Amino acid sequence: MSVRVAHTITEVRALVAEARSTGLSIGLVPTMGALHAGHGRLIERARAENAFVVVTIFVNPIQFNEASDYTAYPRALDDDVAFCEARGAHVVFAPSVQEMYPRPAGAFVQVEGVSEPMEGAFRPGHFRGVATVVAKLLNIVQADRAYFGEKDAQQLAVIRRMVDDLNFPVTIVEVETVREPDGLAMSSRNRRLSSAERRDALALHEALEHARSLVAAGELSPASIKARASAIFANYPAVRPEYLEIVDPAGMQPVEQITAPVRIAGAVRVGAVRLIDNVLARPPLQLDTVTSTGAFIEKPERMEEK
Amino acid sequence: MSVRVAHTITEVRALVAEARSTGLSIGLVPTMGALHAGHGRLIERARAENAFVVVTIFVNPIQFNEASDYTAYPRALDDDVAFCEARGAHVVFAPSVQEMYPRPAGAFVQVEGVSEPMEGAFRPGHFRGVATVVAKLLNIVQADRAYFGEKDAQQLAVIRRMVDDLNFPVTIVEVETVREPDGLAMSSRNRRLSSAERRDALALHEALEHARSLVAAGELSPASIKARASAIFANYPAVRPEYLEIVDPAGMQPVEQITAPVRIAGAVRVGAVRLIDNVLARPPLQLDTVTSTGAFIEKPERMEEK
Questions:
Q1: In this structure, are A169 and A256 located in the same domain?
Q2: Residues B106, B224: one domain?
Q3: In a domain? residue A102
Q4: ipTM of this complex prediction, to 2 decimal places
């Protein structure tokens, strides 16, 4: 069966309603297109867990804080539709900006706290735009499950908080990051890197992996880890780091001391391209449970393992 | 059949899912309880248009900008349940604050523009709290239609804008204001008025009706109408007016000149109680269509007639 392409809200709702009326479960994979293997894994996971899968392709203007980034963001709808079809998606929803925002957006979803550090600090308004468009897509498609990549860990935390706090009737599923053989996280923006920039782009992965290894070896001071990991950027003069932060995985707030698994996240600019990545890091013992006497209780099972 | 009372999200969702599975349409009437004939009309309208009606009763703390108003807000759950049962509602959803906000709210819906004048100016954060709790209730109940009173006209405009812009899959239905025989708009807060205050409370209705009659008589200058209508408050020294404004009915922005039906809205304080009310006013001709030459085209049919 070939994939159906819907360009309007009315069309996609009709296709979903038809599937729903026959009792099918609905999976939603929201993307900005220029699909790569990371998106492929989202679609495959959605296919495995739902009878009917909708992939949305929409470069959402209100989440771009830089006009040049919005303009330069790669678009490849024909390739994307073929990509979705090859992976068994049932519907591609590819609306125009006019369809999604027939007038300037007036209602916004704002998620406090989790939106504020890191990407929130460097990209003012970004997460408000993300939360708003995801709220719209959830309301349009009304899926049972929606799939997001771990690569955008803070985005995922923002969406989880929105869904929990506003009681959206959907289950959010996190899917692990897909990497190139050398470790670079897959990203639509990688297409914009020159070959020299492509080599430099690895600096972020290298710094994050170094930070993770330090945590695994028992270094529990974020300040020390950040300093040592960031030193790697000195080897890449064309790379301009924006931040490298160590945060609690749910609240995305910087931690003072590492006592439990942490998310280590960073952003760099390489030429005109801005890239982000992150890893989950665990201290050698699971120190996330501290008794009232201050003693640690080891928890052998790993939390948040993907 | 007697009304079912649900106190948890899980319970109300199960009751709605059961009704939905048998093909019933769902109507939602969100209230803060202390039900009166105005709510009665909402429930009756919902009953007429849906096979299954859910009334929610929740005094939403995050929409109160004054702690004393939240504390003093009347609560009467047993009476309210009997009231709903008598009018044929199927479910009363009466959650605790803990159930609705198990942790401090972190995700909010903010509606720009329409939220800002009048109530928005006098009650900072009020509409953010309203939009947020209505988003939650829409997501919890997933009704086909939701019913709101014209008395809270700006609230209704905020909710319409939220539903339109965020694509909530629900139809918003506006139900006309119910008044006491002397014209006072029904309000749960009326219960808190002493008998002297009850007499003074009529000042707002009187001022709004005077303003409406001026518009109907052809006075098209908001400044002049506001001055003449507000003069009525001088007869009521115990009444402290907060605003009397003439706005476009959808956008809730003050108009410079009346060329189409307008909403005239006001707020007053009588003792410790704050009251609001509004009327729709029409100029003698429907002047809402102006040709490029500046000539008026009469539109005989009435717009937004309830």
A1: no
A2: no
A3: yes
A4: 0.92
Angle, CA A244 vertex, CA A242 and CA A245 arms, to 5° = 130
Q: What residue numbers bound the domain in which A140 lies?
A: 4-175
From B128, B150, B175, the end of a domain falls on: B175
Q: What is the pLDDT of residues B139-150, one digit of tens each?
A: 999 999 999 999
Query: Which residues are CB-contacts of A75 (< 8 A; sequence separation ≥ 6)?
Result: A33, A34, A59
Residue type at B232 in one-letter notation: I
DSSP strand E in B176-302: where?
239-247, 262-270, 273-281
Q: Is residue B295 part of a domain?
A: no
The answer to whether B225 touches B207, Cβ cutoff 8 Å, is no
B224 and A CB contact within 8 Å? no
Provide CB contacts within 8 A for A167, sequence distance 6+: B9, B136, B139, B140
Same domain? For B208 and B165 the reply is no
Within a 10 A sphere around the Cβ of B99, how many other Cβ atoms? 16
Which pLDDT tens digit goes with each residue over A50-82? 999 999 999 999 999 999 999 999 999 999 999
Measure the CA–CA gap between B52 and B143, rounded to whole angstroms: 9
Residues in chain A with pLDDT values less than 50: 290-306
Q: Domain count for chain B, please give it.
A: 2
A13 contacts in chain B (CB < 8 Å): 169
Measured between beta carbons, which residues in chain B are less than 8 angstroms from residue A105?
165
What is the per-residue pLDDT across B182-211, written as a single tens digit (0 to 9) for each?
999 999 999 999 999 999 999 999 999 999
Instruction: Give the minimum alpha-carbon distance from B137 to chain A in angstroms, rounded to a whole number.
Output: 8
Question: Whole-model pTM?
Answer: 0.93
Amino acid at A86: A
